[in-house]
Design goal:
The chain has two domains: 328 residues, Rossmann fold (3-Layer(aba) Sandwich); 114 residues, no CATH class. Helices cover 27% and strands 28% of the residues. The strands form four sheets. The protein has a seven-stranded antiparallel sheet with strand order 3-2-7-8-9-10-11, covered by helices on one side. The chain has a six-stranded mixed sheet with strand order 12-18-19-6-20-21, with helices on both faces. Strands 13, 14, 15, 16 and 17 form a five-stranded antiparallel sheet that branches. It is globular, with a radius of gyration of 25 Å.
Amino acid sequence: MLYLNKKAMLIRFVVNNFLSFNEECEFKMISGPFKNHKHHVYRNSKIDILKASAIYGANGAGKSNLIKAINFLKETVIKGGIDNSIDLKKFKLNKENFNKPSTFEIEFSIGKKIYSYGITLDHSNIVEEWLYESGITVDDKLIFERRLLKTGKTSISMSNKYNKTEKEALLIEVIKENLLKNDRLLLGMNKYLKIEELTTINNWFKEKLVVISPNKYVHGLMPLLLESNYFKNFLNDLMNSFDTGINELSSEEIDFDKFFTDKSSSSNKKNIEEIVRLNKMLINDDLSAVIVMGKEGKLVVKKTISIHKDDVGDNVTFELSEESDGTKRLLDFIPAIENVLHLDSTYIIDEIDRSLHPALLYIMVQKIMNDKTSHGQLIFTTHESCLLDLEIFRQDEIWFVEKEKKSGGTRIYSLSDFKPRYDLDIRKGYLRGRFGAIPFLATLQDLNWDKYES
């Protein structure tokens, strides 16, 4: 068990009436009473938190919707409010839900403290917003609570420690009457409140909670390669261990004008003034992962290249665009792997198996889970059953998502609910439907495909 009293961790997430979630569903990273893989448990001063979770389920069951719900809350906090009505994102298979609010709540630790933050939305309004310091074994401590009253006005309850003086009380009143609109978050008003605790919480959402969608490119490789010899060594050691054929990743320098002549469709050359001002700038090129930098007053382009060995052992340079989709996807995960191992960040990856060979995925996840000095969390959705292995995960680190037949809504539950033995073949049990969360499988004869034979 790792004692990480100064670390930031995701503990729990609750969602209700959003996308495929008809009723309240809870996902949690709290450890159960299992004895295996003790190094997967981070010990906060108040609670034991898990290192990872693998989320399984059939297509259309709602795995991605869980990730979208977490990301929706994250983006709402970053933007400081909602830009559009929530109505189109409410659960649509129950007409009554249109007139019900949608709720999101997240619990997380920062250092020794645990916070619970949530919002309730209806139409274009933030109906409720709350932030508490979770007591776990004692009563929660209010930091703030905000409600939209039937009169259309907003009420704000603030912790006494932030509402002691006449000046502080007046500021809260000004925010309530003039600044806090129905679609804006009180958490986003910290530029006026200037409360250090709220700044720390905002930064957790922005920097510590990272969501990677199936089509999202992180663009984090090139800056790290250029600025950190440690990361370059880490990257190359890792890639060699994955046996991708890449001997080394490096960078090559290209003349600025030549690069943009070759890529004449790019609009980035118009941003020369900004490049000069910032001294460097990422270019939106998913395949080349290039960066523009100033060098001795001259603009140049540096981009990532891969180096392979030919049949006589000589170096051969490849563009990243020439690498397989699986290799490129793996490269996209490298900053995430490095941060999970060495930083207290929570990485949530939707469809981690996209474009990755099962054997490569198994090795990558196994490396992360076997590391006994890691600092972060990894949460991902997948269809790949090879990871259903109690040699890799604890029982409470495996989750299932299933669509309820009657309501069509998503429900989520943990493998630990079944209390499986340590020696149980989880993969075989899952594929046989023992834990649910798999699609309907039928024989060709049952499907009557012979009717369509030509």
